[in-house]
Design a protein that fits this description.
mainly alpha, 2 helices, 70% helix
Length: 46
């Protein structure tokens, strides 16, 4: 399969993996905020 230079054709699996990584980052960030809610609230009120 020949590809032209300059075109960025990503396999569908790469796109899916990027979506999964993004979702994991969002979930970890939300869990961190929930677990450390008191600290975030204290910083917000300074």
């Amino acid at each position: 399969m020949a590809t032209e230079e300059g075109t960025e054709s990503r396999p569908p699996l790469d796109e899916v993996m990027e979506d999964i990584r993004g979702e994991l980052v969002r979930r970890v960030a939300a869990a961190d905020r929930d677990a450390n809610r008191e600290i975030y609230d204290a910083l917000e009120n300074e």
